[in-house]
Amino acid sequence: MWALRNSGCLCAAWSWGRSRLARGTAGGRQTDQNPEWQLEEQKLLPQKKVTMELLDHLERLALVDFRNWEGVERLEKAIQFADQLHEVNTEGIEPMDSVLEDRCLYLREDNITEGNCTKELLQNASQTADEYFESPPDSLQKAAFCKLRCSFFAGENLVTGNIPLPKLEEHESFLQDSN
Amino acid sequence: MLRAALREVSTALKEGRVSPTELCQRCLSLIKTTKFLNAYITVTEDTALRQAEESEKRYRRGQSLGDLDGIPVAVKDNFSTAGIETTCASNMLKGYIPPYNATVVQKLLDQGAVLIGKTNLDEFAMGSGSTDGIFGPVRNPWSYSRQYKEKCGQNSRLENEDSSWLIAGGSSGGSAAAVSSFTCFAALGSDTGGSTRNPAAHCGVVGLKPTYGLVSRHGLIPLVNSMDVPGILTRCVDDAATVLGVLAGHDPKDSTTVQDPFNPFELPSVIDVSKFCIGIPKEYHIPGLSSETLAVWSKAADLFENAGARVIEVSLPHTCYSIVCYHVLCTAEVASNMARFDGLEYGHRSNIDKSTESMYAATRREGFNDVVRGRILSGNYFLLKQNYEKYFIKAQKVRRLIANDFVNVFNSGVDVLLTPTTLRDAVPYVEFIKEDNRTRSAQDDIFTQAANMSGLPAVSIPTALSEKGLPIGLQFVGHAFQELQLLTVAKWFEKQAKFPILQLQEMLDHADALSHQKISLFS
C-alpha cells in the first residue's frame, strides 16, 4: 500500500503563500498574526528594500508605472518571495540558460525566404507615413521614425537622461506615504 | 457525435457517416449555446465553414489529408493566425491581425483541420485561472455538470449560479473548456509553467506539454522563451499523440527546435506496464495538497504496483525552491519580452503624443493590466545591474540544480514520474479572486513548473471526481524526447482510471433558460 508521507520541504515556499491569507492588503505594514511567518519575514526582510529612487529608476527602465501603492507592495512581495533562493547553496554550480545547452544551435542559411510584405506589416501600425512607422514629433523623431527601416540611425542615442513619463495623480500621494 | 474522441470522429468522416460541414456546423451551434462559458474570444465561423467545405471536397474526391482533415480545432489566442485577430486577451493587442500563421497553426491547417475559433486566456498567458484577461473569466463547464450539481445538492441552482461557478484553471482555460464542453475535438494551449496541464486537470481533459525543443514556438507570442512550449488539449491520450504527430519536428523558423527527426507514433493498444518503473517524488507531498487528491495519487501508485510495475519513492531535493526560481526567471524574461510593445509597429497606441517616450509609457500603461505590469517591474528589478548576480544568475544556478534532480532520478532507472497536477479540484471564482495573481500562480503552478524548468515532457490525465463531483488530474513526467514512453504509460493509466464523461445536459438547459430570459452575460 502506498503511504505518502508529508514532506517538510515545501514549507518555506508554502507557508509564505498561505500566511498571506492572514495578512491585510492595504499598506501591508501591520504586524502579522502568524508567528511562523513573522520569523520568515524577519529573516527575509531585514530592511526596507525599495527606495523612491529605485522605484523611479525601475519605472524609467520598464516604461510602465507602479500606478499606486499596491503596485509597490506587489514588487516588495515579489522580492521577498525571490529571497528564498538565497537559502540554496549554489557554490560551483554553473547558471543554466537553456535546457538545450548541450545541443548545437541551429542556424539557417542566410537566404531571403520571404519579403515584400511592407504593406501587410504597416497595416498593423496605427500611424504611418509612406513606408515608415510614425512616432510623435519630437527631438528623437528621426531615431524612432526609422526604427524598422533605417539602421544607420542607430548611432543616435535613443536613451536620454530625462524621459518625460506621464505624471500620475497618485504618484505624489504615494511619495508622501513612504516618507 | 460531438462527444466522440478525435479518432472516432475521424473514422466517421472517412466512412461518410458525417460530413465536415455538418460537423463544423454542429460545433458552431454548440459554441453559441455555451457562449456563457466565455471559452472563445473569436469564433471564426466563416473561415471555418469555408475550410470545412474544402475538406468535404477532398473527402468526396477520396483525397483526405489524414486524421485531422475536417476536424474542428481551437487555438489559444496567443498563437498568431493570419488574418484572424490575435489578442492575448490584452488591450495591448486588441485589434491586432497577424500577417502570418504560427508554425503549429499552419501545420494543423495543412492537415485539413478546421480552425473554429481563438480561445480565452489570462492576459499574455500570465495566470493560473483564466480570470485575468480583458474579455472576462472562463467558466469551467463542470460548474454546470450533473455530477457537480448532484454532489452539491443545489436545487435552486439557477439562483445560485452566479456565485457557485468554478474557474477553468489557466492560463489555457478557454482551450480546456472548449475541449471539455465538446465544442472542438482538440485545442492548442501554451505551457510555460503549467498553463496547459493546470486547466486540463480542472476541466477533466488530457493536457500535454511536449519536451522543450520538440514543437515550434514560431508565432507563439512569447512569455518566457526558455520555457514556453505549445501544449495540446484533447479528450484522450491517443488524440494527444495524433496531434503531437502533426505538430512535432524541426522548424527552420525556430532555432530552438531540435533537428532530430521525429517519427509520428501510434500508441500500442495492448500495454504491459510491468516493464516500467514509476517514480513517486516524495517532495510533492506538501501540506496544501487536498486529502482527496492525495488519496487519488496513492491509489494510482497502487494501481501501477498491482499491475506489476516497479513503483519507488524518489527524491527531487530542490523541489521546494523550484517555484521561487521559476518566479525570478519568468519575470526576468517577461520584462525583456514585453519591451517589444511600444505602440509604434502594432497593437495599441496611446493618443498621448507629447514625445516618443511619453507615447511609449502611456501606451504601456493603457495596454497592460496590473499583473503584466507587476511582472515587468519585478523582472526589471531582478535584472538591475546590482541585482543581476544576486537574483537572475542565482536563479539560473538553482535551475540547474532542479534540472539535475530530474536527471539523477531518471538515471537511477525511473521511466516516468507520477505526481498530482494541482493541489485540489477547481475552486469557485469568488474564492479564487480573493488572492492576487502571483500568490495564486505560486500555489497552482507548484507541481507543474519544474517540468518547464527542466524542459521535460509532462501530461495531465483526468483521473477521478472529487467529493464535489469535480475532476482531479494526475501528472506524468517523462524523459526528454520520450513522448512515446510517457504517453504509453499515460494511456494505460487512462484506461484504468475510467474517468467519467461530462454530463452536459444541465448546462444546455441552463443555456436554454438563459436565452429564454434573454440574458446575455457577456455582451
UniProtKB/TrEMBL annotation, chain A:
The EC number(s) this enzyme carries: 6.3.5.-
Major site of localization recorded for this protein: mitochondrion
InterPro entries listed in its UniProt record: Asp/Glu-ADT_sf_sub_c (IPR036113), GatC (IPR003837)
Any one cellular-component term (Gene Ontology): glutamyl-tRNA(Gln) amidotransferase complex
One Pfam family linked to the record: GatC
Catalyzed reactions per annotation: L-glutamyl-tRNA(Gln) + L-glutamine + ATP + H2O = L-glutaminyl-tRNA(Gln) + L-glutamate + ADP + phosphate + H(+)
Location(s) in or outside the cell: Mitochondrion
SUPFAM superfamilies found in the cross-reference section: Glu-tRNAGln amidotransferase C subunit (SSF141000)
A Gene Ontology BP annotation from the UniProt entry: regulation of translational fidelity
Alphabetically ordered keywords of this record: ATP-binding, Ligase, Mitochondrion, Nucleotide-binding, Protein biosynthesis
Example GO molecular function: ATP binding
Role description: Allows the formation of correctly charged Gln-tRNA(Gln) through the transamidation of misacylated Glu-tRNA(Gln) in the mitochondria. The reaction takes place in the presence of glutamine and ATP through an activated gamma-phospho-Glu-tRNA(Gln).
Record-stated family: Belongs to the GatC family.
Record text on subunit structure and interactions: Subunit of the heterotrimeric GatCAB amidotransferase (AdT) complex, composed of A (QRSL1), B (GATB) and C (GATC) subunits.
Entry protein name: Glutamyl-tRNA(Gln) amidotransferase subunit C, mitochondrial
Provenance organism: Crocodylus porosus (Saltwater crocodile)
TrEMBL record, chain B:
A single GO cellular-component term on record: mitochondrion
Protein name (database record): Glutamyl-tRNA(Gln) amidotransferase subunit A, mitochondrial
Gene Ontology process terms (BP): glutaminyl-tRNAGln biosynthesis via transamidation; mitochondrial translation; regulation of protein stability
Assigned EC number: 6.3.5.7
Main location: mitochondrion
InterPro entries: Amidase (IPR000120), Amidase_dom (IPR023631), AS_sf (IPR036928), GatA (IPR004412)
Domain Amidase as annotated: residue spans: 28-487
Reaction(s) catalysed (UniProt annotation): L-glutamyl-tRNA(Gln) + L-glutamine + ATP + H2O = L-glutaminyl-tRNA(Gln) + L-glutamate + ADP + phosphate + H(+)
Gene Ontology MF terms: ATP binding; glutaminyl-tRNA synthase (glutamine-hydrolyzing) activity
UniProt cross-references to SUPFAM superfamilies, sorted A to Z: Amidase signature (AS) enzymes (SSF75304)
Location relative to the cell: Mitochondrion
Role played: Allows the formation of correctly charged Gln-tRNA(Gln) through the transamidation of misacylated Glu-tRNA(Gln) in the mitochondria. The reaction takes place in the presence of glutamine and ATP through an activated gamma-phospho-Glu-tRNA(Gln).
Any Pfam family: Amidase
Assembly notes: Subunit of the heterotrimeric GatCAB amidotransferase (AdT) complex, composed of A (QRSL1), B (GATB) and C (GATC) subunits.
Active site positions: 76 (charge relay system), 171 (charge relay system), 195 (acyl-ester intermediate)
Stated family: Belongs to the amidase family. GatA subfamily.
Enzyme class: ligase
The entry's keywords: ATP-binding, Ligase, Mitochondrion, Nucleotide-binding, Protein biosynthesis
Gene3D superfamilies assigned: Amidase signature (AS) domain
